[in-house]
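Q: Given only this backbone (398 positions), what sequence would you predict?
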């Protein structure tokens, strides 16, 4: 479908060339935790409900070439999600877009109630996303609204804000889980939008919920990581971050990832944490010396990858011990969460670059750029990577 559906808002877009890109070498596949075979095909933030960040191999060629860029005329912090030849992405302009993955031409656009800085989940012909006011379910092919569930107003947050993201919906089984600035984690029936339960925290919930083993894991600006029964919404345990003199609350803005019995997540107190998924007891922490860890960790083959804000780095650490394996100087803050694909690590930076590194060594294999900060993470599909920038464009690089 090439036109806009009735009731959706018209917009202006264009496809343009990009700067020349460095060549990336092909490496072996990274194995990772995948969604259950019983689940229908789906695409979402950090690839799956446990947030492994590992994308299935899609035969990216040795040479990466520019394809297109799409103009939104606003800041873009939503991570593009790709399924069945369509790129789904939101913008600070209050619109949520479905773009043709091959050409960048719009299929439809939906006008939300406010800026869309969450990422989408697409499953079984439905696309889900959130803004500060509500979570939405749309027909993935037409953009027609299936249901909407409203949130309350944002709770106050003192001091240094930098509140650029929204929680993204995670769909697992028959449920959709999403956090809100009103301090709640919500569970809805994914098909109908009927509320299942609500769990209240004491801070904004910008973290995207991870779901594993019947438990939902999510962070809050109140400085806690929560483990909640996925069926009933009752608390199983919570873990309090350490905090530091500048950020004593230790806000958890990072989204957790779950590898078996370990949950990984970052905090504004400058630590990356690993806690036992069953008990909530700390296993280890990595000190980034008060540099925020907003980037959500990804994992594969016993290695955890994450970005450091003021540390201007992408790190790889041993999943069992927390000891560093390598560090890459990105020359700009890294709020983007890593994508793992074909033995490479892809991420964006505050300097406007997207880098891809050798996942084993941390050496740079290539880069692309934009004219603005990249807080978006990287999406992949149809032999192409996709990213959004504060320069007002969404990019596709083959």
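A: Predicted residues:
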């Amino acid at each position: 479908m090439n036109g806009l559906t009735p009731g959706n808002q018209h917009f202006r877009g264009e496809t343009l060339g990009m700067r020349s890109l460095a060549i990336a070498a092909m490496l072996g596949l990274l194995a990772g935790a995948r969604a259950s075979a019983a689940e229908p095909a789906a695409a979402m933030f950090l690839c799956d409900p446990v947030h492994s960040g590992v994308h299935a191999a899609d035969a990216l060629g040795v040479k990466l070439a520019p394809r297109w860029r799409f103009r939104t005329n606003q800041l873009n912090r939503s991570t593009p999600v790709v399924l069945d030849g369509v790129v789904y992405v939101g913008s600070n302009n209050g619109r949520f877009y479905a773009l043709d993955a091959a050409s960048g031409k719009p299929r439809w656009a939906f006008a939300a109630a406010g800026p869309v800085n969450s990422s989408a989940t697409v499953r079984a012909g439905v696309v889900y996303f959130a803004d500060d006011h509500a979570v939405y379910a749309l027909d993935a092919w037409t953009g027609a609204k299936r249901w909407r569930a409203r949130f309350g107003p944002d709770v106050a947050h003192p001091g240094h804000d930098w509140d650029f993201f929204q929680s993204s919906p995670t769909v697992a089984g028959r449920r959709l889980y999403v956090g809100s600035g009103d301090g709640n984690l919500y569970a809805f029936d994914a098909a109908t939008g009927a509320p299942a339960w609500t769990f209240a925290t004491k801070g904004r919930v910008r973290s995207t919920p991870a779901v594993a083993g019947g438990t939902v894991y999510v962070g809050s600006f109140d400085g806690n990581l929560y483990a909640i029964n996925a069926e009933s919404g009752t608390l199983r345990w919570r873990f309090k971050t350490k905090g530091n003199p500048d950020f004593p609350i230790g806000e958890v803005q990072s989204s957790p990832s779950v590898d078996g019995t370990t949950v990984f997540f970052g905090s504004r107190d400058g630590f990356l944490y690993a806690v036992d998924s069953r008990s909530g007891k700390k296993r280890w922490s990595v000190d980034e010396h008060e540099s925020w860890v907003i980037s959500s960790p990804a994992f594969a083959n016993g290695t955890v990858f994450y970005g450091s804000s003021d540390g201007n780095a992408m790190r790889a650490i041993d999943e069992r011990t927390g000891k560093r394996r390598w560090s890459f100087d990105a020359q700009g803050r890294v709020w983007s969460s890593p994508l793992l694909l074909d033995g490479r690590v892809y991420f964006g930076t505050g300097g406007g670059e997207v880098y891809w590194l050798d996942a084993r060594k941390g050496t740079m294999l290539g880069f692309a750029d934009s004219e603005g900060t990249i807080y978006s993470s990287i999406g992949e599909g149809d032999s192409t990577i996709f990213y959004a920038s504060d320069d007002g464009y969404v990019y596709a690089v083959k």
